[in-house]
Amino acid sequence: MTQATSTSEIVVLEEGSVTLPKGYKAGGMHCGIKRKRLDLGYIVSEVPATAAGVYTTNIFQAAPLLVTQESVAKENKLQAIIVNSGNANACTGEQGLLDAYTMQKDFANELGIEAHLVAVTSTGVIGELMPMDKVKAGVTQILNKEYENESLFKEAILTTDTCVKHTAVQMTIDGKKVSIGGASKGSGMIHPNMATMLGFVTTDANIAQEDLLAALRDVTNQTFNMITVDGDTSTNDMVLVLANGLAENSQLTKDHPEWDIFKKGLKLVCESLAKKIARDGEGATKLVEVQVTGSYSRNAASAVGKAIISSNLVKTAIYGTDPNWGRIVTAIGYSGVPVEPNAIKVAIGPYTVFENGLPSMFVEEEVKEYLQLDVIKIHVELNQGEFSATAWGCDLTYDYVKINASYRT
Amino acid sequence: MTQATSTSEIVVLEEGSVTLPKGYKAGGMHCGIKRKRLDLGYIVSEVPATAAGVYTTNIFQAAPLLVTQESVAKENKLQAIIVNSGNANACTGEQGLLDAYTMQKDFANELGIEAHLVAVTSTGVIGELMPMDKVKAGVTQILNKEYENESLFKEAILTTDTCVKHTAVQMTIDGKKVSIGGASKGSGMIHPNMATMLGFVTTDANIAQEDLLAALRDVTNQTFNMITVDGDTSTNDMVLVLANGLAENSQLTKDHPEWDIFKKGLKLVCESLAKKIARDGEGATKLVEVQVTGSYSRNAASAVGKAIISSNLVKTAIYGTDPNWGRIVTAIGYSGVPVEPNAIKVAIGPYTVFENGLPSMFVEEEVKEYLQLDVIKIHVELNQGEFSATAWGCDLTYDYVKINASYRT
Fold first, then answer.
1. What spatial distance separates the first Cα and last Cα of chain B, rounded to whole Å?
2. Of A255, A388, B270, B313, which sits most exposed with the smallest number of CB within 10 A?
3. Res B30 pLDDT > 60
């Protein structure tokens, strides 16, 4: 995973995370919600940060999402995030809501700040009350120096994840170095529309809140909302961005000459985190990327990409290294998008497998070999227009069934 | 499976099939598309029958569907059906279309009837040309007495199916005995909107074509379109009904006093065939039935039922006998239907697991034991109105992955 790539303007620091931008600290500990693994984490900014969030569209929104949305709405600012794993605090009624408020208030007290500056997020089992004695004890200790470590934070937010997920980018805006860092979790119940997916993005940029929110929404639609593991949209999905302004650039708005650089940086962070979630899909052995080009709209291209990436039959074929273009074409056909069957071209990696309404002449063994790679790329050209979209997912394996026939989410 | 139940008006004959109604014969043989199993079948009516069909909504409709739709459109009549398994004749371009016409014409010649009175249907691998030498040879032999057997027909239409699927009902209309028989196939790529699902229904009723079609569409929406195995809608799904009138009842229309009896009979046949497909879903160990009541519309109730029955997480939980109501509630929440979270009641079998926005007090071991049954019933009461819908599916198992990581559809 160690990798530093750069465009002319943006340096990608794959090892970076939420504490790379100026003025942020993060930490994590074991407070006892889970049996052994870390289960409580935080991010704190030195100063109140401009905040924006996107939240699950599931009608059963978990209690912490209600509390966080209400708090962000107050003055579009956050200074801290408290997060637990192991318990989603979802479908927990009035008591669950009280518990989320308690987590918020207690952590605010430890920090000496107002409660609405603290976001509360939870992920884990649905429908069990939070073990508040353990959580409360944890909150009083978590700011101790021994727990202050961004690595501990990344561990503390995981559930069925097999690895931590983080990235960062740096760019120059107004001659100032601006950084964006991110960390996320998610492995199952992943089909975000704005999954049990949590994303935390920090930046030291000085930025106008409404433009930050607009950028986050647009970027989320192209990144987090374009991944799927199992087609299930969780009750707890949330992505939060904090921008504390400590880079001291003049305020970014969509009219700022370097706006596009910032937005591109934000997209790079969100896309990297989203792809890491897809790659770590429950039981997955491969990352699958579906690029759809030549559509009459971005939404239509997204719908075609999501239909393919969501197909259990495509996913099992990829697991079985079977160049089964028929299943890809079938998924395109039921995507709901009025495509033109004879105009479509489908490629698996460098190999064209379907064109002019007919299977192409390809060497089965070559495509089978390609399908043994870690990252599988499928390209669909619709030949209907200029719009494109990319979706990410994973293969469907025996281990997905194993994990979900036994793990209680 | 042997079982004869009866309401006051309709006798269900589980052992019956497409040749129970008067004037139909059926048969099947091995012509060589598959290595060993039967792969070519037919149904023939003594006289031309009033016909109605429903077809896949997948944009990539297979060649035989194009030919059959065109033929039925001519005078709403069919006298014969020729069907092969092992090759779907889908994504096969101009040649595929020519091959479907050839099958139709050759079988019509054998029967001495006009070509448009023959429906052509295919199921199997996508994107390979039909081995027409074998098919043509088969068509010239299949009417031989040795192949005339309704049991051979039911075998000849199967692909990954593990069992034959058929049923029949009998009722009295105008003092005449009227029968409806059906046979179907389907196991994977099943999420019919109008699946690789084929359904054949025969009746000796005398019935007006437009009313037969209206009844078939309505019944299909409540039966075949309410099942899912893997969420993938095939290129070849089709249900055909033939009504040859040999029962000699006065013509059925929706204004006939006994119309409701006929329609109920048709629904019983289609529902039985649909449930058998769901139960025989690839790798499935259980039939899952989701009943949604108290909705503001039938479409909304259907959407909630389909969201639950389609959830990989619900399906794996049932396989794992895990009373995971949280995944059921999550699926309701992303169904797109504006439900009222606190009004919903969810039961697994006789056990209420969720009510008033909170998990119910249930004994985990009792529900786990229930989940070991062959047929699992989930009931969701939405408390928003008077409409209801039922959806059927199956659990998601290791064997689903195994079958689909290796079998080429």
1. 29
2. A255
3. yes
Query: Is B196 part of the annotated catalytic residue set?
Result: yes
d(CA A110, CA B17): 73
Number of CB pairs, chain A paired with chain B, less than 8 A apart: 190
The SS3 call for residue B300 is helix
Mean pLDDT computed over A44-50 = 94
- Kindly indicate the confidence band of residue B193, based on its pLDDT and cuts at 50, 70 and 90: very low
- In sequence order, the 6+-apart residues with CB closer than 8 A to the CB of B154 are B17, B28, B41, B164, B165, B166, B183
Predicted confidence band at A327 (pLDDT cuts at 50, 70, 90)? Answer: confident
Which range (A224-233, B1-10, B31-40) has the least confidence? B1-10
In 3D space, the residue among A200, A259, A196 whose CA is nearest the CA of residue A52 turns out to be A200
* Both structure tokens of A305: 């990409």
Residue A331 is nearest to which of B232, B401, B408, comparing CB atoms? Answer: B232
How far apart CA B96 and CA B135 sit, in angstroms, is 13
How many other CB atoms are found less than 10 A from the CB of residue A41?
Answer: 30
A16: its two tokens? 């970076």
Residues contacting residue B326 through CB under 8 Å, at least 6 positions apart: A90, A91, A125, A126, A127, A408, A409
A57, two tokens: 């569209």
In three-state secondary structure terms, A361 is: coil
Which one of A232, A341, A356 has the shortest CB-CB distance to B311?
Answer: A232
Report CA Rg, chain A.
21
Q: What is the pLDDT of residues B210-264, one digit of tens each?
A: 999 998 888 888 888 877 666 566 667 788 889 999 999 999 999 999 999 999 9
| Alpha carbons B89 and B184: distance in angstroms, whole number | 18
Q: What is the pTM of this model?
A: 0.77
* Residue A224 to residue A388: CA distance in whole angstroms: 16
Interface test with A, best of B312, B314, B360, B399 (most A CBs within 10 A): B312
CB of A62 closer than 8 Å to CB of A197 = no
B69 burial via Cβ count (<10 Å: 0-12, 13-18, 19+): middle
**B131: which 2 tokens?**
């081995």
Place of tokens 């699946």: B195
Give the best residue of B98, B315, B330, B380 to mutate against chain A (max A CB count within 10 A): B330
Q: Which residues does B200 contact at the CB level (< 8 Å), separation at least 6?
A: B18, B43, B81, B83, B157, B182, B183, B184, B239, B240, B242
How distant is the alpha carbon of residue A111 from its chain centre? 27
Angle between helices A63-75 and A93-111 (to 10 degrees): 50
Buried b / exposed e across A117-149, counting CB within 10 Å, b at 16+? bbbbbbbbbbbbebbeebbeebbeebbeeebbb
| Pairing status of strand A287-295 against strand A375-381 | parallel
